[in-house]
Amino acid sequence: QVQLVESGGGLVQPGGSLRLSCAASRSIFAIDSMGWYRQPPGKQRELVATITSRGRTSHADPVKGRFSISRDIGKNTVYLQMNSLKPEDTAVYYCNAHQSSPLGVDDYWGQGTQVTVSS
Known about the structure:
The structure is a single chain. The protein is mostly beta strands. It contains no helices and eleven strands.
């Protein structure tokens, strides 16, 4: 089991930046992958970025070159640096931990943090 708590959301003007944080209740070193998802108003949840236990990162096409996922293993925290924000980035952003075990696959989610990009 792992609890995830997101922070760092808010209201920002187009072109601005935000950094989201996801604090985990235990070490993230051995978690298969952690990621950020978002759910825009009236739409389905979509993948934004992931980082594996080996530190390999992946970013969805709409955010490539603008967003960057990273982690601090010592702080059990995953970050999402968001630059050049656009109104279409407005969404609730969720942190995810994806873990395989002998019993199957487990996905853990945070409560979400609202990001609003508007002038």
